[in-house]
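Input protein
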Amino acid sequence: MKLNRIMVWLLLLLMILLVITGYGLTKPNLVSSFTGGWIDYWTAQYLHTLLDLPLLLLLLVHVIIEIKFSFMRWGFKSRNLLKALMLSLGVICTILILYIEVASL
């Protein structure tokens, strides 16, 4: 539960950075003046492409934890089967995310 709460705060921070850098790509003058010149177009582009993989992986872990808690609330009894299902889902989704990341290079 604590790990999930920490992830939510990290996800919020990453989302804010992703939005700012996204605007840095579409409205570079506005973001540059807003950030005091720290984020120009090229910095925004670098950060925006750098942040997508950590964001997706953290979001995946957060969602899997929440799915596990939902199944437990709904009365799913076998904890070992639940762990195996969540691990399988996590591995499959991670492989898909990494495949899409590598294919887009």
